[in-house]
Amino acid sequence: MSDLTPQSDAPTPTTDKITQAARETIYLCNFRVSVDGEWLCLRELNDISLTPDPEPAHEDPKDPIAIERLNLMNMAKLSIKGLIESALNLGRTLDSDYAPLQQFFVVMEHCLKHGLKTKKTFLGQNKSFWGPLELVEKLTPEAGEITASVKDLPGLKTPIGRGRAWLRLALMQKKLSDYMKTLINRKDLLSEFYEANALMMEEEGAVIAGLLVGLNVIDANLCMKGEDLDSQVGVIDFSMYLKDGGPTSKSTEGDGQITAILDQKNYVEELNRHLSASVNNLQAKVDALEKSNTKLTEELAVANNRIITLQEDVERVKEESSQLLESTCKVSKSDGSANGQVLGEARKQIKEETRLRLDVEKELEVQIGMKQEMELSMKMLEKDVCEKQNALLALRQQLDDLRILNQELSHKLQTSDGAMKQKNEITSRLDDTANQMAGTIKQLELSTLIACSRSA
């Protein structure tokens, strides 16, 4: 395990190998996890250098985004290969508790999250790969069943939970590779969700989609109803792919094992620190959500109190209106005798206006009836015209058919006349030939008789 040996101050024969391995490493905090065949190896950044000699000052360092894409692609290779081999050795249907399968989904989640554009919401910034996965339904109609099933699951409340459920259903359907290829081929749509240098926008995404074809040989039966997909922490467990030990190049086996154990111990400690930081961040988010929930609860209580106050004001206004109406009625009764004549004239005027309005309404009803009758007659005329036009078209069609038939008969008649003339000519020729043959026979008979008489 030459990748696990730290570089000493003096140059060693293994410098070139360490340099080559360091160019293909996965950056994780203060460590590099290098890909060595089917395993990963750890080494501290301060203990190695990328070249045996100092590089020229004018050369730029390697693009960290490109390194991230390469690291994720290498992790996907190891995860998919390990999952296929372990599943074939297991020889049964995989379930949700199978550790290599869980790690595969974690790696896929990291690949889909790489380079996602941040969307701002009222709770803060949000990055979710559920949006790109929803595009598959538009590009491939058969994926609509998976999307509908995910949306119908009762326990999913967040977009990331729906995205995780979608990946599991696509794997069970053995269509994950096809869906990913379809999605990667439409970079014009993915640009809405990903940065230009994201994994899904580069060739590493196409490589991962091709590797997913191998997962069609395994069978999985995943139950998601009781699984909490919303609150899972997606951390890659590199310990599944780390070397347990082995001989180092130009060193003893014991030194290589000690170096490997120390490097893996440092990695586990760093991973534990990373997980602790993630837990603290999640706890801070939970506290912020609790504060916002408390604030919303207070605002709701204030709104309820305001509603109750408004209802009381409405009841009070109703009571005042009823009291005012009663007082108005009493005043009108007291002044009734004085204003009796005015009320009588007003009533007569109202009756006259009512009668005029009724007359106008009757006239309007008559006009409406006449209009309806005219519309009905117009419709009947239109229908009659349409029927006559259809009949005329049918007659024209029949006339055209008769003309075509007449032309055909004329053509046949001309053809038959020509054939008849040819037959008559042939008959006359045959008659002439028969007459000539009859004359020839008679001459032969006459000459025969003359010859017989002469011989006698």
Automatic annotation (TrEMBL):
InterPro entries tied to this protein: RUFY1-3, Run_dom, Run_dom_sf
Main location: membrane
GO CC annotations, alphabetized: cytoplasm; endomembrane system
Subcellular location per the Swiss-Prot or TrEMBL entry: Endomembrane system
SUPFAM superfamilies (UniProt xref): RUN domain-like
GO biological process, any: regulation of axonogenesis
Keywords per UniProt: Coiled coil, Membrane, Phosphoprotein
Coiled-coil boundaries: 272-363
Residue stretches making up the RUN domain: 95-227
Record bears the keyword Transcription regulation: no
Record flagged with keyword Mitochondrion: no
Protein name: RUN and FYVE domain containing 3
Organism: Paramormyrops kingsleyae
Source organism phylogeny: Eukaryota, Metazoa, Chordata, Craniata, Vertebrata
